[in-house]
Amino acid sequence: MEAIFYITALVTILSTVMVITRSHAVHALLYLVVSFLGLSVIFFLLGAAFAALLEVIIYAGAIMVLFIFVIMLLNLGKDTEKREQDWLKPRVWVGPAILTVILFAEIFYLITVVSQPAFNLQTVDPKTVAISLFRPYLIGVELAAMLLMAGVVGAAHIGQHKKTVLHRFLKEEEEVV
Amino acid sequence: MNSAVSIEMVMLMAGLLFILGIAGVLIRKNIIFMLLSVEIMLNAAALAFVAAGSHWGEPDGQVMFIFILAMAAAEVSVGLALILQIYHQHQSLDIDKLKEMRG
């Protein structure tokens, strides 16, 4: 059972090393998704299944989609199509795919072959987490809500360059005409 | 059961991930990669919190994990908006070209 932990730790650290050594941002993002998935398997092994779920949904889902969206916005050039074809070569995605298959085999083994846990711990179920979150940590939840609100407003305020760029462009066009 | 993984190994792994994140911040020149490395460091901290929480059997570790998650989401949204703005103003994401802050 403890071999599962060591394999997962190896996969996670390997993919993290690949993240900080890639030259293309999209390749790094592929490995970063693998790193998040490995970390979620470790959360699952630690008995925090809810945290593992949140890791997959929010980190590997939402935050990575934000990153990919911004990188696609930054690459609006003429050679985007050729670069896209370069990125789809098999040697780009075969490394993350192998690591992900290893993680999937582990989680399949963990779910089907039920044996002794990898850690000598009692699991903390989501009900306890929710009770602790909404009773002693209620002020923290409200502060986190305010932080998210500030993040949304700040991102909307900082990111509103489209209007000015469009304006300037239209003005230039009028001057040209 | 004496063959179980000790909690120190998980903490060691969290420290290793944190060091990798610091190395990524220090060695990369691209702002996007620096933001990715910050995410790695946040993940390492979250792993340490969850491991400690399940070591003591307390829910506080996962509560802190949820807070870290909310903070990372807010930080990424603002950071990526800033990156878009920087790229539209300077046409570059290299920190050596951006360091003078000419405005």
SSE arrangement:
The complex is a heterodimer of chains A (177) and B (103).
Chain A: H1 2-21, H2 25-45, H3 49-74, H4 80-87, H5 90-112, H6 126-134, H7 138-158, H8 162-176
Chain B: H1 7-27, H2 31-56, H3 60-90, H4 95-98
Helix pairs in contact in B: 1-2, 2-3
Give an account of the 3D structure:
The complex is a heterodimer of chains A (177) and B (103). Chain A has 177 residues and is mostly helical. Chain A contains eight helices and no strands. In chain A, α1 (2-21) packs antiparallel against α2 and α1 runs antiparallel to α5 (90-112). The mean pLDDT of chain A is 82. Chain B has 103 residues and is an all-alpha fold. Helices cover 80% and strands 0% of the residues of chain B. Chain B starts with 6 loop residues before the first helix and ends in a 5-residue tail after the last helix. At the A-B interface, α1, α2, α3, α6 and α7 of A face α1, α2 and α3 of B.
Query: In terms of per-residue confidence, which ranges of chain A show pLDDT below 50 for 5 or more consecutive residues?
Result: none
Task: Write the H/E string of chain B, N to C.
Answer: HHHH
Overall shape of chain B: it is elongated
Number of strands of chain B: 0
Give the overall average pLDDT of chain A.
82
Q: What's the story with the biggest beta sheet of chain B?
A: none
The percentage helix of chain B is over 70%
Q: How far from one another are the termini of chain B?
A: 62 Å
Integer-rounded radius of gyration of chain B? 18 Å
Biggest sheet architecture of chain A: none
Number of helices of chain B: 4
| Quaternary class | heterodimer
Uncertain stretches of chain B: none
Residue share in helix of chain A: over 70%
Large-scale geometry of chain A: flat
Structural class of chain A comes to: mainly alpha
Count of distinct strands of chain A: 0
